[in-house]
Amino acid sequence: MNIVGIIVLVIVAIYLLAITNGLIRSRNKIDYAIGGMDAMLKKRVDIIPNLVAAVKEYMRFEEDTQAKIVSLRNQNKESFMQIDDDSSKIIKTILLTVENYPELKANNSFLHLQQTLSEVEEQLSAARRTYNAHVLNYNNKVETIPSNLFAKLLDYKTMPMFAIEESDRQKPDIKKLFNA
Question: Mind telling me which residue stretches traverse the membrane in this protein (predicted)?
Answer without folding.
Answer: 6-24
